[in-house]
Design goal:
mainly beta, 4 strands, 0% helix
Length: 79
């Protein structure tokens, strides 16, 4: 398991439609969530996340249409 996946480096919580930048390794939806745009190492961005659904990867920006996400910071974000 990679360090930081459990939140040991902090968590950013977003519920607006602004674009947010950061260094995250895990994103968890709180309630039904629709992601408008996601910059990551994924080849396909998820558009909809169910309550409690988590995605793992290297994420550098997120823009929501609706919902709430918990974005878990990577160790890199601390330097």
């Amino acid at each position: 398991m990679l360090n930081g996946w459990g939140g040991m480096y902090g968590v950013d919580v977003f519920s607006d439609t602004d674009t947010h930048a950061g260094d995250w390794v895990k994103i968890v939806a709180k309630g039904a969530t629709v992601i408008n745009a996601l910059s990551s190492n994924w080849t396909a961005n998820p558009a909809n996340l169910a309550d409690g659904e988590a995605i793992y990867g290297v994420f550098t920006s997120i823009d929501l249409t609706s919902g709430i996400v918990y974005c878990y910071r990577s160790a890199k974000a601390q330097s």
